Amino acid sequence: MANVLIAGAGLAGLTTALALMQRGHRVRVFEQATELREVGAGVQLGPNGTRVLIALGLADAMRQVVCVAAGKRIRLGTTGQSWPVFDLGETAIERFGAPYWMVHRGDFHRVLLDAVRAACPEAIAPGHACAGFASHGDGVTLRLANGHTVTGDVLIGADGVHSRIRQQMFGQGRAAFTGLIAWRGLVPMQSLPPHQRSLVGENWIGVGGHVVTYPLRRGEILNFVGVVERDDWRVESWNVPGTTEECLHDLAGWHEDVKTIIRNIATPYKWALLGRQPLDSYVQGRVCLIGDAAHP
């Protein structure tokens, strides 16, 4: 049995914790936030991912919160012309042996959190930000921001895009602005016209941008992401509110269905899309990276 330390209680950290605990390992998860919740909006999980969650025993809990969309289609940003791409639903199960799920990150996080706490109520330590680590011959010592230290056999850095674990392993790493910003928001499905309430994922394509929409939470809400070319906003954060007027301005030439969705978003959020060079390795001795900590 290994003594495993995990920095970060997001989606990757909790999924890893649950998998390791089910295999008999001792796991402790250290999270900087004092309140455990997941920000963001939608996540699409293909059969390769849902197969893992089902194997972890999460099928029933996930089915309570996901939307099983009927399919996906492409739409032209100016005219709204539509082309079917592929079927989902039962077709995904028949072809790949597992479903295709669309889920709110908060709902997904809550399912994982409940499962980890059910397996071990003391496994997660909120309010414990990670400051760094020290490797030694027979283990790793994790340094916490409050001055405390904990020692384990291995350390998994799942502490997000601004990972302190990654910074110590491989340096700061320069994030380069891509020239794109993304708008995101959630819309109650009942606030939309009937023809926009279909349980399908839509990828809108246009000049200088694209829009992705798909249903979440049993089809009760619609997730919106609009990506446009802009060079005057470079804040790498998911939580900066914008305005409806600014979002409409960025997508002014798009179809009325897109604008209807934007007008029904209570608070549109915007963030700059930055990229980093991929790492050559995600492992250094007894320490490794997963999730956004390992993501370019």
How much beta, percentage-wise? 35-45%
CATH superfamily heading of the largest domain: FAD/NAD(P)-binding domain
Helix content: 10-25%
What is the H-and-E element order?
EHEEHHEEHEHEEEEEHEEEEEHHEEE
Strands across the major sheet, in which order? 5-4-13-14-15-12-17-16
Provide the structure class: alpha/beta
Q: In the CATH classification, which architecture of the largest domain applies?
A: 3-Layer(bba) Sandwich
Shape: globular
Number of E-state strands: 19
Mean pLDDT: 93
Would you tell me which CATH topology of the largest domain applies? FAD/NAD(P)-binding domain
Q: Number of helical runs?
A: 8
Q: Write down the CATH class of the largest domain.
A: Alpha Beta
**Total tally of structural domains:** 2
* Low-pLDDT sequence parts: none
